[in-house]
Structures are given as C-alpha cells and as structure tokens.
UniProtKB/TrEMBL annotation:
Top-rank taxon, per record: Bacteria
Pfam families assigned: Extensin-like_C
Region (Disordered): 19-42
Organism: Allosphingosinicella humi
Extensin-like C-terminal domain: residues covered: 43-215
Comp. bias regions, Basic and acidic residues: 21-41
Protein name as it appears in the record: Extensin
Signal sequence coordinates: none
InterPro entries: Extensin-like_C
Length: 215
C-alpha cells in the first residue's frame, strides 16, 4: 500500500472509533415523550442548553407506588461538581444549576474568600413518603423533584457542613450557610434547613413542589 493509501486507511479507521467524550443530549434527538410534548419541559431543556449546562435527557419512568421520574435529566457539568446527583426533573435541575452558579459561588467568595470546588448531596430520587413516615404523603423525592445538600468543599481545603456549620462559632461560616439557604428560598418551591425540624439538622432540602415555603 502506498503512502497515500496508508493515510486514507488510517483516517477511515479513526472515524470508526467511538469518542469517550460524554455527549449532552440535544432536545431534538430521541427525547422521552414528556420532553417532546410538554412545552414547559421543552423550554427548560432549551434554557439548560442556552446556559451551557451539560446534561443527559433520561427516559420517562414509573416505579410504582406513585413514584416516577418524568421529564427528568442527569446533570453532567454545571461548573461545580456535585456528589450523588441522580435523576432530577428539568425545572429542579435548572434552578439547582442557577443556585450553584449565581448564589453558592458568589457567597463563598464573599464570606469565605474561596471558591467552592465540590458540593455534597444526599441525593435526589428516593421512593418514600415525606420525612420517611409510613402512610404519609409522597415526598417530592419520589418524583425526582427534590435534592438534599449537606456540605461544601472549598478550594482552600475547608469543608463546610450544614451539620457543623449552621451554628458554628465562625460568623462567616454561619453567614455563608444562611446566604445560600435564603437564596434557595428565592429559587425553589420549598426550602428546608436546620430550623425546619430535627430531620433537616444536617442538610438543606430543595424541591419544586407547591410553595413557596421557606424554613
């Protein structure tokens, strides 16, 4: 095979090798039924794309017992990694990305003089009643419509937890946590923190259920 033939064969072979780069789902490609038919979901997906959020559209799923993940996405990159994020309804994902970018990072720089390099969560979807009480109303977690945030890791190495920081002796830590909690109240339907009840002593709960309610 001549030199030109060898180059051509190499190029053809390279074109057959799949890329390992994760691909963000485009709204026009193989979307779940809810994403195709619901105008609010379509607008939400467009908002995520416009705001340069990388995400994957997930198939609609019903898990029984009223639990579901309809019109949900998986966030891949919002600029700040978050541990344990699973399926999230698109509106929740959109507001979470905005909260992280427009509230958490500015508050960290203002009060703690450092960027947040990682957020820790207790997860999103969980098929269970409110507060885990048997026979109770279905939690928004059972609709992939809630997220629980427990800690923030700073670039300077500090780890700020809701559990230890909410009533910390450090004024700046307390101010930071209250700032991001209040920012959640302005973005999510329901925001709960340590002052809501003992079950939220170690995390912030954000959901897009009926509200507004902030505690």
């Amino acid at each position: 095979m001549g030199r030109r033939g060898l180059i051509l064969a190499t190029l053809l072979l390279a074109g057959c090798i799949p890329s390992s780069e994760p691909r963000r789902a485009e709204p026009s490609r193989e979307e779940p039924r809810a994403a195709r038919s619901d105008p609010d979901t379509r607008q939400c997906l467009a908002d995520l794309s416009r705001e340069r959020v990388r995400f994957e559209v997930l198939p609609d799923r019903n898990f029984g017992g009223g639990c579901s993940a309809i019109g949900a996405v998986q966030l891949l990159d919002i600029g700040t990694p978050t541990a344990n994020l699973g399926a999230m309804t698109c509106p929740l994902a959109r507001e979470y990305a905005r909260w992280t970018r427009q509230a958490v990072q500015p508050a960290a720089r203002s009060w703690l003089s450092s960027d947040v390099v990682k957020i820790e969560s207790f997860g999103t979807y969980a098929c269970r009643p409110v507060n885990g009480m048997a026979g109770g109303k279905l939690s928004e977690h059972g609709r992939a419509n809630a997220v629980d945030i427990s800690a923030f890791v700073l670039r300077d190495g500090r780890r700020i937890t809701v559990l230890e920081g909410w009533n910390s002796d450090d004024d700046d830590v307390r101010a930071f946590l209250r700032a991001v909690h209040q920012a959640g109240c302005r973005r999510f339907g329901i925001t709960l923190g340590p002052e809501a009840n003992s079950l939220h002593h170690n995390h912030f709960h954000f959901d897009m259920g009926q509200g507004p309610y902030c505690r």
